[in-house]
Amino acid sequence: MDVAVRREVADPSWRSVPIPADEPVATTARVLIGEDDADMRSLIAAMLRSDGYRVVEAANGAEVLEQIEATITGPLRDRFRAVITDIEMPALTGLDVLAALRCAKWRTPIIFITAFGNPDIRAEADWLGALAVLDKPFRPDALRGAVRKALALPSGACAAA
Fold this sequence. Notes:
alpha/beta; Rossmann fold; 5 strands; globular
């Protein structure tokens, strides 16, 4: 990993927020899903929509960055409160996406889902400030808990630091 990227990583102390209790979601928070497997992406999107979230889908890492960049100058209600992304994807990996966001000082919580959860990948994700890394297949409640944790984090006028 580039030394410049390492210097730009945000302080990870914000990740110690406890997971809120299981409560119905009374929110219209926007969540971005980056997953190259269309079936998995649709399944996650349907689950989150049924929980009351506004969901946007992206099929690769480049689309994830495009979706996030498109919200920067838009209304606050259109900004993403959480990003759920696979690690291994075409165009850019999830780790590439997270590194780019942290270099831009963008602090939106990132939740990784992966079938390749080896210790090195987990260490890099943690070092870059990922909120969670869930191994596929994951329990839906584990993903819901990670999203609730992301939404419990403070959000200001924008999700950038």
